[in-house]
Amino acid sequence: MKVHTMSFQGLLLTKDEASQFAAGIQTLNEDQLPAGEVRVRVAYSTLNYKDGLAITHKSPVVRSWPMVPGIDFAGEVIESADPRYAAGDAVLLNGCGVGEVHWGGLAQQARVKGDWLLPLPTALSAQRAMAIGTAGYTAMLCLMALQEAGVQPESGEVLVTGATGGVGSVACALLAQQGYRVVASTGKLAEADYLKQLGAAEVIDRAVLSAPGKPLQKERWAGAIDSVGSHTLANACAQTKYGGTVAACGLAQGMELPASVAPFILRGVRLQGVDSVMAPRARREQAWARLATELDLAKLDAMTQTVPLARAVELAQQLMAGQVRGRVVVDVNA
């Protein structure tokens, strides 16, 4: 029998009848948590591009109000009606609509469906799991897509766009660890040393790819991981070698794809979409198992900063302004 309700701190996004948006830290009550079989004491969350869009209200990411943002969290089960989880179990969550239609991880507690959770890999702390977060998990899904399509290190160079971002940073590290020659595209050439420390063999200016280009261009890439979209993705496809694969997972430049069918029907190029939100559980488990063993944790630590919950709004604004590199972990209890 519940004898009291627990209050906790969380970042709450609100919109009133006049559609005035606000984001701020509030004291919340466990009775306010949405329905779900498992209640979790959150240790860490993180800021991904989608979180930045939600917290700054730049895009209609949030579809239910009020909302606790944060599409990821890692923590410890408080109570569970799901037989797969018991109090004290270490768990993590990515996507599944949390932070969009269901309260997410930027609070000290969360209540979610058991199907959305995964056991925290024993090789990872909660903090490192969130340093990986949806961004790193998506990067692994992209690597898996390239490998399943037959793109191997001996196939040739792999392009990573948006390379100083969360997905791009982890993608560079993962690809380099697997022996690929990584070419990193970025708008921040001052960060070239950072990217080379992560494993990039070469760094190019994003301007090379971000302007309108010809439908078919000189073949260069065996594969590409693109988190940018728009003209960048179109040019990456136009420059991909015969039989190569481009894994597309983001839209930092835009949602449109101003491309032609030429690379696909003349060079057999494959454009593989990568979704991290609703990926099947078995694929999630496979990706996290590989992340726990294949990602260089020293490189992960080098690309990560950890901030208290009180700074989440500030960092989200910096993220959307392109002023953040790598990964931002949020300690919701700091």
Write up this protein:
This protein is of the alpha/beta class and 334 residues long. The chain folds into two domains: 7-120 and 303-331, Quinone Oxidoreductase, Chain A, domain 1 (Alpha-Beta Complex), CATH 3.90.180; 135-273, NAD(P)-binding Rossmann-like Domain (Rossmann fold). Helix content is 29%, strand content 27%. The mean pLDDT is 95.
Strand count: 15
Please outline the major beta sheet: 7 strands, mixed
Structural domain tally: 2
Average pLDDT taken over every residue: 95
Q: What distance separates the N and C termini?
A: 30 Å
What is Rg? 20 Å
Which percent range fits the helix content?
25-40%
The amount of beta strand, in percent, is: 25-35%
What's the overall geometry? globular
The topology string of helices and strands comes to EEEHEEEEHEHEHEHEHEHEHHEHE
Low-confidence stretches: none
Instruction: Please state the structural category.
Output: alpha/beta
CATH superfamily of the largest domain: Medium-chain alcohol dehydrogenases, catalytic domain
Structure annotation, total helices = 10
CATH class of the largest domain: Alpha Beta
Would you tell me which CATH topology of the largest domain applies? Quinone Oxidoreductase, Chain A, domain 1
CATH architecture call of the largest domain: Alpha-Beta Complex
